[in-house]
Amino acid sequence: MFGAFRQFLGSKGSMKCQYIPFYLKWVSDCYAYLDTPSDSRLSSEQKKQFLSHMAKNHEDWQVKQADAALRLYDYFLSRELKRLSSGVPGAWKDLEQRMGEALRLRQRSLSTEKTYLIWLRSPLDG
Fold first, then answer.
1. Quick check: 4 and 80 in contact, CB under 8 A?
2. How far is CA 36 from the centre of its chain?
3. Looking at the chain, which terminus has fewer C-beta neighbours within 10 angstroms, N or C?
C-alpha cells in the first residue's frame, strides 16, 4: 500500500520529491506503533495517540509534518478503498438480475420486484 501512496504523492506535483520519503516514514512509523494493518483507516484518537508519542522525541515541525502525512494517507486510503470496491457493482448487477428472475418465476408483480430491488440496493442500518 505504501508503494501506491508514494506514487500518489509524486503524482500530485505539489510536494517536493525530497519530502516524500519522510511522509512515508511517518505513516509507516504510525502504523507500526499502533500495530495496525496499513490498509485500514485510523481513527482520530489513534492519530492523536501516535502524534503525542512522537512529540516526546521529535521536533514540533516533525510532528506537524507527520500529522499532514497521516491526513494525506487517510485521504489516499479513502480514495483507494472506494476504487477497490468499485469492482463489486458487477456482482450486484448479477444478484439483481437473478433476484428479478426468481421473482418472475414466482409470478410476483412488477411493483413487488421493484420494491425488492430497492431493498436490495439500500444500505444496511447497523
1. yes
2. 14
3. C
Share of the chain above pLDDT 70, in %: 87
Specify whether the backbone of 13 is left (phi greater than 0), alpha (psi in -120 to 50) or beta: left
82's grid cell = 472506494
What pTM did the predictor assign?
0.63
Domain that holds residue 75: 2-85
Nearest-angstrom CA–CA distance, 36 and 88 = 25
Q: Determine the pLDDT at residue 122.
A: 72
| Residue 29: all three cell numbers together | 512509523
If asked whether residues 27 and 62 sit together in one domain, one would say yes
Same domain? For 20 and 78 the reply is: yes
Residue 1, Cα to own-chain centre: how many angstroms?
11
Residues 29, 33, 38, 42: is their CA dihedral positive or negative? Answer: negative
Q: Rounded to an integer, what distance in angstroms lies between the CA atom of residue 110 and that of residue 126?
A: 29
CB 33 within 8 A of CB 21: no
| From 11-15, 26-30, 51-55, 76-80, the region with the lowest mean pLDDT | 11-15
